[in-house]
Description:
The complex is a heterotrimer. Chain A contains 6 helices and no strands. Chain B has 2 domains: 137 residues, no CATH class; 223 residues, Orthogonal Bundle (MetI-like fold), CATH 1.10.3720. A 3-stranded antiparallel beta sheet of chain B has the order 2-1-3. In chain B, helix 1 crosses helix 19, helix 11 packs parallel to helix 14 and helix 12 crosses helix 14. Chain B is extended and about 100 Å long. The relative contact order of chain B is 0.10. Chain C has one domain: Rossmann fold (3-Layer(aba) Sandwich), CATH 3.40.50.300. In chain C, a hairpin with a 2-residue loop joins strand 1 and strand 2. Chain C is globular and about 55 Å long. Chains in contact: A-C, B-C. At the B-C interface, helix 15 and helix 16 of B face helix 2, strand 6, helix 3 and helix 6 of C.
Amino acid sequence: MASDPHIHSAFDRDLEAVQAMIMKMGGMVEAAIADAARALETRDDELAEQVRRNDRAIDALEEQVNAECARLIALRAPIASDLRTVLTVIKIAGSLERCGDFAKNLAKRSSVLSQLAQIPGASLAIRRMARTVELQLKDALDAYIQRDATLAADVRQRDAEVDQMYNALFREFLTHMMEDPRNITACMHLHFIAKNIERVGDHATTIAEQVIYLVTGMMPEEARIKADKTAFAGGDE
Amino acid sequence: MTDISAHPSGKRKTSSLLQLDARTKRRNAAERRFQIYGLVCIGIAMVALVMLLVSIFSGGASAFRQTFATFEMTLPAETLDPDGNRNPEEMAKVTTIGYQNVLRQGLVTAVRGANIVPEGMTDADITGMLSPEAAADLRNRVLNNPELLGQQVEIDALAHGRIDGYFKGRVTMQSAERDANVTPQRLQLAQAMADNGLMALRFNWGFVTKPDASDQRPEAAGLGVALLGSLYMMLVVLVLSVPIGVAASIYLEEFAPKNRWTDVIEVNISNLAAVPSIVFGILGLAIFINFFHLPQSASIVGGLVLTLMTIPTIIISTRAALRAVPPSIRDAALGVGASRMQAVFHHVLPLAMPGILTGTIIGLAQALGETAPLLLIGMVAFVRDYPDGPPAGLFDPASALPVQVYNWTQRADPAFVERSSGAIIVLLAFLLVMNAVAIILRRKFERRW
Amino acid sequence: MNDMRIAERDVSTSETKITARDVNVHYGASHALKGVDVDILNGHVTAFIGPSGCGKSTFLRCLNRMNDTIAAAKVTGRIELDGENIYDPKVDPVQLRAKVGMVFQKPNPFPKSIYDNVSYGPKIHGLTRSKAELDEVVETALRKAALWNEVKDRLHAPGTGLSGGQQQRLCIARAVATSPEVLLMDEPCSALDPIATAQVEELIDELRSQFAVVIVTHSMQQAARVSQKTAFFHLGNLVEYGETGQIFQNPRDPRTESYISGKIG
């Protein structure tokens, strides 16, 4: 993955191993989000249960990554790009672990939602949002593999899209709840789901920023467009 | 804030770097003075060396040139071979006196033939122009080549030492008047002969190859026997002292346990190196001649005595050379599983070889120049016969170069002064050749690593 | 005979190669090593670390009896190589050193050609019968030492003409050529620059598949990089011995912790 091999080939092997773990983790998280969204849409309790179980594996993997990084730092004293690699690996693993938690939360709520009445159009919208976020996460991880700062910057900008989707869903759920108080339970759950998905998008952005740091050695400075306006949207209707 | 200035006075004067302070000036001056002392010392050493070389060469170079009388004559067969059958054994009955008469005849004829009129000189006086050795030389020549008899041959006769001295500026007309061995008339004749090409100074190989001659014949004295004797002794020293010395040092340095015994041995070896050489001479006399009954004056005895003298030098320098080999080389050899002996002989010894050679050469040079112990074992004897080839020749009487120098300086005839200087030149040349061989060997060993 | 030659031995199984029990070394009056117990495993690089004078080099030199050359050194205790006590009076240290090779702190090639350096061990041990076999052994050893490609065109050039790192690899090749079972290294990189050090370390990592490697080092980072097992010596005691990762992340003994984090000399 890194440009030139080290004279210590074992160092390269260690670095590759830890990054392979990240890739594996990324794949598991993507799958977890997709599965959770599908479980919600299809009201598939079994799938939701599986997502919750899988999260334990993701958590374990994060611990493994952290332990491996600690060992790398202790034994290999990485510097320069190697140091950035190890540092970003730790951060990305943390982000991915959070994303896994969000997927688990999604799955939990979908089990509850499957007992409630369906909110028309909601699961489709959630599914679309989940897919966008999934793509964002996938691109962020691709950018990481390819050390592609341009793609990472692109991922970072695309977060606005997710934020807008979340804003739209927020208004929609608000409308449903105002129309019929019986929808409140479902809408509250759906709102948290949307919020969690939006949070996954934020973590994808964090990963993208880590990629930029890894490649350039500097954190991106320019402000990115924030489109999550719900904090100000409370009473305007 | 505490004052952490390193200077007790609290502050250091700041000054320009372009201006030297008093301390620096003093220090620089001291350094310059020291360099000048060194140069002066080297200068003194150089001047001493130059003086030595100049005095030796100016005094000794002429020893390599000798005055010869050159003329042609027919060797009378009837006087020199009365039996007429050219048998060298029978011809040997004619003594040197007979040849002297023949030579006189030839020289007188040659002088007359050149229209030189030797004023107030008898024929016997004319014979005195030549060295007594000339007749002996001619006799040897004829006995070796009987077919020369009755033929016209060119005679190359050594001139008398005084005549030779005249051409070298040692003898003048004034000194000749007070000299029993030469008269001004002979010098005039010599001058006339030289003007007619009958007499000339030429390079004389005989100085290096011929044996010593008696006090009366300095012109015939040569270094042949001394050179051979020295060579034989060096061979003995080399063959004995190098293996013994090197083996002893290897054992002491690499194998011997470090205890009181080895300490005692070590101290004794160092002391032995400082023992005056004449003591070794007494030792040699007592042991080799009186106890083992080896022949006196023989180069084997001289060699043995010099070996005893050289061994401590070789041991000391060899041990230094062995110690100078980095221990890492021994470790390396032991580390791949070599035994102690393999480590020493495969690795340590080759590396120490240049140092060992240097020590050997210093020891040999010392031995070559040694006179005192040789006097005690009788090598000062007057030896006219060449020793045989080795090994039998080692037991024949011989002389040695430094002893020959010493010997010649004892003699009355001033002609021996130049000869002893000449012998020193030969001795130095011998030394130079030895050193050159050592340097070549060193190069050869050093190139290997 | 042939099985004595360099053969690709697979020693990756981690059975115990050397067992040291209660090893004590006295240099005259000073007690240099106090009751050391260590197991050295095949297929592992074992690093000995510790401050100067802690006894790590002394212990290393016990393992092939190089201490025998020092008259004042007295070794007690048991050191077993494959279950045989190497301090048994019947053991010939020369034969032992053929099995337990050693590489030293300063690169010390013999002042001879590269070829002669490597072929010396096999020659004196009679490991080869022909010139062709010897050539092969030399090539294999140089390849194992990752030096072959750099020197194959000048095998008869002097070994001392190589760079420091190359010289040290030549010394490793020389040690490897006698096909030892254990390779001892006494601060093999202390005289080398970082790149040469890295090359030698990489080589050590490769060699551990064929030998049990024991390395003494001043550099904790080096121990961390190359070893799987680390032993920390302090004042003649073996303070701690364990997995390198554990020693460097979570040492059990406070003295180890202080030393590796740079708090005691």
